[in-house]
Amino acid sequence: MSDLPKTVRINEEGPREGFQIEKGPITTAQKISLIDSLSETGLKQIQTVSFVPAKNVPGMADADDVAKGFTRHPGVAYTALWLNARGLERALGIGRLDINGTLSLCASESFLLRNQKRTFEENLQAQHEMVAMYRDHNVPVVRAGLQAAFGCNFEGDIPLPRVLEMVGQMLDIGQQYELDLQYISLADTMAWATPLSIKRVVGAVRDKFPALDISLHLHDTRGMGIANAYAGLEMGVAIFDGAVGGLGGCPFAAHQGAAGNVCTEDLVFMCQEMGIETGIDLEKLIESALLAEQIVGHPLPGTIMKGGTLSRLREKIRARTSDVVAGNA
Amino acid sequence: MSDLPKTVRINEEGPREGFQIEKGPITTAQKISLIDSLSETGLKQIQTVSFVPAKNVPGMADADDVAKGFTRHPGVAYTALWLNARGLERALGIGRLDINGTLSLCASESFLLRNQKRTFEENLQAQHEMVAMYRDHNVPVVRAGLQAAFGCNFEGDIPLPRVLEMVGQMLDIGQQYELDLQYISLADTMAWATPLSIKRVVGAVRDKFPALDISLHLHDTRGMGIANAYAGLEMGVAIFDGAVGGLGGCPFAAHQGAAGNVCTEDLVFMCQEMGIETGIDLEKLIESALLAEQIVGHPLPGTIMKGGTLSRLREKIRARTSDVVAGNA
After folding, report:
1. Confidence (pLDDT) at A1
2. Residues ≥6 apart with Cβ < 8 Å to B69
3. B91: enclosing H helix or E strand
């Protein structure tokens, strides 16, 4: 019936995804407090900031201070995002981030032209230059990502053969430079995926490249985030990106409404209730989500932070039942 | 891989589920305007009001006026809810509602005692009395419903054998009185279901009673609504309750947060994008959702009403592409 994994790893993107799109102002101290709170939850990877020009993403103007200010927690990888050598050098200069390289293609040329002012061909060429840049800085390239893998607000549906071709292009680059690519991330950047297309695309990638681990980066703009994650789990996907509270969204994707990543704690809730281990303390993660909501100053789309966990309810029910049995009711 | 149905029927419960829990005040004219708007969407069944004492559910004090005031649309069944003979007689007295009877059991005795002040045994006995009442009024009994089929805020997880036993009890009553039961509704009244438990419970009911159609009544309190609907679709479930905008929630279920039914237009969006026919005009349904939001005066949890449909985006993209081809860009 399904192929649910036993354990799942969730990479938290809330601090980066979230704070880049919020109007703010959000103080450096607040950003640091959220990262510190997330560090206590059992998450193994937290994307902290993005090193991009402040004129493009004003919410990341204090990226250096945030990256220097949080408290590192043993066993947690603290990552960051950059788009070029200048960004990578800033990240390396911090001296306390976990720096890994990513190959990145985009399945929509329309989005690529708008977002990065590159054609498919130019973007493919740029990956070779990125690999050279990573080599120059002794940075391992461990991940390949495909943006807009399920559809694009500017281009529409993405043909499956194009997805397979682009995954193949990244694997070819990996082979050419002997990179240790650990997984491919398929990103539903503009929330076009449905559970059915998740199954179709993940299934086709898995069939063509059976040795490759797949991760999903999902957005909840059209309410399909958790259902899409479930479809991914059923296809054996065991790595997901999430954003605490459902923070975030890409400022260049022409999103309407709730544009955020799939909500980390809702995803953790679903996994735990289905017997899938995440290593995350859900109650602590909800505290982080409530902190995030307090920081941004408006309601976040996460639901478990409002609806409450079932484990907490089960405890209450057990306590009441014990009282009754002990004659205390 | 899955057993997705080709067509799905969605019973709209927004007017009843929604307006019973809203603090209001919501005028009779506003309630009527929402029902009239929903009548234009292609929905085949709309639950309009509940005939319960105004002291218990103040938001339904004007149920008679609402039920008399909306415009009947050909091909749409306008239903209502009642809990006893007094309520049924009020509903029949309106003279323009589509009156069908329902057998109803509850899988949690704790919830039953709180909500209806009955034990399991008393509730089972009450079904026989309800059948007699329906016979007295020449009302066909076409549906059996099991509340709290997936878990209960007061009792915890519900053992699967109990679900199967209670479905069997209702089918036995159906046989005893030669009722024409058309389907069984499994209700996740307090939002305990996950996609996995949907599959387990629906699968077990389907295996034990293969001739029976199953419908799902889902709540989104813990963010699992759409994922649970998807799991139901994969099990071949082709009848769902929904509430426009995600309105609603049961006032007696001790919900926290967004307590509403699964959002009708989000469900329709998922079905349409996966090639499942609903007969519903999604853009019109979104207009109804926006009207509902305006009526209740606070944001509703629905996402497609904010994020926009993909069919609308595809049209825009096609129009732009034609312009370019025609040299108008």
Report:
1. 45
2. B28, B29, B32
3. helix B85-94
Q: How many angstroms separate the CA of residue A64 from the nearest CA in chain B?
A: 33
Reduce the DSSP state of residue A127 to 3 states and report it: helix
Structure tokens that stand for B37 in this block = 């708007």
Top residue of B310, B314, B320 to mutate, by most chain A CBs within 10 Å, is B310
Q: How many CB atoms lie within 10 A of CB A323?
A: 11
Q: In this predicted complex, what is the ipTM?
A: 0.94
Give the torsion sign (CA, A155, A160, A162, A168). positive
Please compute, for residue B289, the number of CA atoms within 13 A of its CA located in the half-sphere on the CB side. 30
Q: Do B222 and A255 touch (CB under 8 A)?
A: no
Average pLDDT over residues B191-205: 98
Question: Tell me: the pLDDT tens digits for A248-295?
Answer: 855 455 555 557 889 999 999 999 999 999 999 999 999 999 999 999
For this structure, is A250 an active site residue? yes
The Cβ of residue A77 has, within 10 Å, a number of other Cβ atoms equal to 15
CA angle B169, B173, B179 (to 5 degrees): 135
CA dist., res. A141 & res. A137, Å (int) = 11
How far apart CA A194 and CA A218 sit, in angstroms, is 10
B306 with A197: Cβ contact below 8 A = no
In B98-212, at which residue ranges do the beta strands (DSSP E only) sit? Answer: 101-106, 141-147, 183-187
Which one-letter amino acid corresponds to residue A289? A
Encoded amino acid at B64, one letter? D
* A307 contacts B255? CB cut-off 8 A: yes
pLDDT bracket for residue B18 (50, 70, 90): confident
- Spatial distance between the Cα atoms of B122 and B91, rounded to a whole number of angstroms: 25
Distance, C-alpha A7 to centroid of its chain: 17
B308 vs A157: CB contact, 8 Å cut-off?
A: no
Distance separating alpha carbons of residues B211 and B179, to the nearest angstrom: 15
Say if the Cβ atoms of B220 and A4 lie within 8 Å: no
Residues sharing a CB contact under 8 Å with residue A295, sequence separation 6 or more, in sequence order: A26, A30, A31, A33, A34
Instruction: Compute the nearest-CA separation of A252 from chain B (Å).
Output: 15
- Alpha-carbon distance of B320 to B131, in angstroms, equals 60
Residue of A152, A313, A314, A323 best to disrupt the B interface, most CBs of B under 10 A = A313
Domains, in order of start, for chain B: 9-302 (3.20.20.70)
Can you read off the two tokens belonging to residue B287?
A: 């207009």
> Cβ contacts (< 8 Å) between A255 and chain B: which residues?
307
* CB-CB neighbors (< 8 A) of A230 in chain B: 195, 227, 230-231
Nearest to B191 among A1, A255, A307 (CB): A307
Helical segments of chain A, H only: 19-21, 28-39, 63-69, 85-94, 109-116, 120-136, 160-176, 195-208, 225-234, 264-273, 282-296, 304-307, 310-325
How do residues B28-61 score in pLDDT, each as one tens digit? 999 999 999 999 999 999 999 999 998 888 889 9
The whole-angstrom distance between residue B303's C-alpha and the CA centroid of its chain comes to 18
Q: How far is B37 from chain A, CA to nearest CA, in Å?
A: 22
β-bridge pairing A77-82 and A101-106? unpaired
Verify whether the Cβ–Cβ distance B222 to A274 is below 8 Å.
no
Using a CB-CB cut-off of 8 Å, the residues of chain B touching A151 are 310
Annotated active-site residue in A152, A250, A263, A271: A250
Tokens for A187?
């990103």
A36 φ, ψ to 5°? Answer: -65, -40
Q: Which of the residues B106, B152, B250, B271 is marked catalytic?
A: B250
